[in-house]
Amino acid sequence: MTERSARTALISSDRGFRETVKDVFLSHEGWAAPALEITAPFESFGEDQVRALRQLHPDLVILDIAEAPELGIKFAQFLSETTPGIRFIASGPLLQPENMLTAMRAGVVDYLPKPVSTEALHDALNRVGHLATNGKEAPKKPGQVYVFYSPKGGAGTTTTATNFAVILQRLTGKRTLLVDLDLELGEIALLLGVQPRFNFVDMVQNFHRMDAELLASYIERHESGVHLLSAPYQPEKAEVVTGEEIRRILQFLRKHYDYVVVDTSKSFSPATLASLEQADLAFIVTNVDLASLRNLQRGLPLLKRMLSRGESHIRLVVNRYHPENDISLEDVQRTLGIAVFHSLSNDYEGVSRSISTGKPIVTNGNSKFSRDMKALGALVTAEGPDLMYRSVDLRLRCCEVRKVEPLKRKLATLDAWVTGLRRDQWTSRRSVQRVEIDEEHGGIVKLNPLVDWTLDQVWTYVREHGVPTHELFGHGYSSIGCQPCTRPVTPGESERAGRWWWETDVAKECGIHCSVELLGTPSDRERAART
Predict the structure, then answer these.
(1) Interhelix angle for 47-56 vs 270-278, to 10°?
(2) Residues annotated as part of the active site
(3) Distance CA 322, CA 344 (A)
């Protein structure tokens, strides 16, 4: 386990402890911030918490057992049995020798009595890193699992997943596995023009003796460089596969491939749900017709529950898109309430020909579909799902895709827009005027009616007039943005301190109210934030 590549989870109902842990991680050169934070007490743990941990498959868990030591240790035992190789740094009251022994057997490699100092936690992280490597070359970072799903047949999900896998391998040269988990009627083998000797069900039946050598015998190798684990030819074989078996196999495949691209069936079958639980990103494919959008709208609540970060794990891909469609991308976003991540041009004839010949269309890079697919692959591989934590510039690129560009498309159809900007929110907003001409959005009028208000005035108005508010305000979120980039603020912090909290001396802006170019270079942004 290389510390920076390790997946870490934090489990604690103690807010002060959580903040201490996150501060230590952010200041530690070797470790990245915890990717998952669970704040529920052990006695209220249920399916949601267990699913989130299964999806993350953490290498290290910071486990606060202060409220219920025995229950916490039992939970650690449960995780150790279901997630081999997991390690724990636990914290709580002084333990009796027998309880300490039980904790050690459950995988607790370091125990820190509360209250925990930052120095003690820092040293514990160093010890865990040393135990993991022991002077040897660190094991390979687990691969990424990308799941493709559509709630309606005929959307082109299988074609998209297949060509995406080929693009991933071409762009990166890394080991890429395409897994056909449409176990009843999967057709990836047809699209690649191969005749598989074995299939996913064969692997399930022999998984108890699976190793790297046996895995290789179940894999088909395509001329593009992509490896394939095919669906069975006989639909009835799908019945023997359980969701738990799929979870374990996908966790196993992560260890042997850099990218695992999964194509699923069009139903919320156990195979599909288990795949979504394990997904680092879920690419939801749709067409711009009413039936497709209606099915997706109905299925979105379940999709968000199955993904550990909810909507932030979803990448909406519009397939067969043409600018002259009756339904625009703005209509899609307004209907579904999520941003379109990427669109793929309509090249029905070219795609149909590629399926008939068993040659993925991206092997011929001349079509618009191929160019769009290459752009999709470049966006994912160049940045990764957690790009926002690596630098301000990468974070701004993410903001550009998820927030700025969708807003630009909408504002291009309007004459004016109204914001809630206030001058006291952040230093970068001190020059905001009540009425502005928004040159960034085509010269339309931008109205900022609250520009002179204070935060106290806002909340006084809310209370006096019964204005509805977001429920997260009651949980310490004074400014609400995208989930990966927002945390509650603590007493004494500024209103926007919970936005991009890992960045220091940088303007707390995404580019909606000033372009990335106007935010300037990193040094420009730091100077602007201080003024």
Answers:
(1) 60
(2) 510
(3) 9
Q: Domain 403-530 is in which class?
A: alpha beta
Place of tokens 């290290």: 60
Structure tokens at 359: 């040659």
| Torsion over CA: 430, 431, 432, 434 (sign) | positive
Give the 3-state secondary structure percentages of the chain, helix then strand then coil, rounded to 5.
45, 15, 40
Question: Residue 295: helix, strand or coil by DSSP?
Answer: helix
The class (CATH top level) of 144-385 is: alpha beta
Nearest alpha-carbon partner for 453 in 484, 420, 485: 420
Write the single-letter amino acid at 337.
G
What is the domain class of 3-133 according to CATH?
alpha beta
CA dihedral 202, 208, 214, 220 (to 10 degrees): 30
- pLDDT mean over 431-444: 89
What residues does each domain of the chain span?
Answer: 3-133, 144-385, 403-530
Domain 3-133 and domain 403-530, same fold? Reply is yes
- DSSP conformation letters of 456-491: HHHHHHHHHHT----GGGGGT-SS---GGGB-PPPT
Q: Which sign, positive or negative, has the C-alpha torsion 414, 418, 422, 425?
A: negative
What is the band of 424 on the pLDDT scale with cuts at 50, 70, 90? confident
Write out the two tokens for 442: 């085509």
- Strands (E) in 372-498, as ranges, are 416-418, 435-438, 444-447
Number of Cβ within a 10 Å radius of residue 451: 19
Q: Average pLDDT over the chain, rounded to whole?
A: 82
Res 264: pLDDT: 92
Distance (Å) of CA 61 to CA 57, 191, 254, 325: 10, 41, 19, 48
**Rounded CA gap, 34 and 21, in Å?**
9
pLDDT digits (tens, 9 = 90+) for 160-173: 999 999 998 888 88
Name the pTM for this structure. 0.56
What single letter denotes the amino acid at residue 83? T
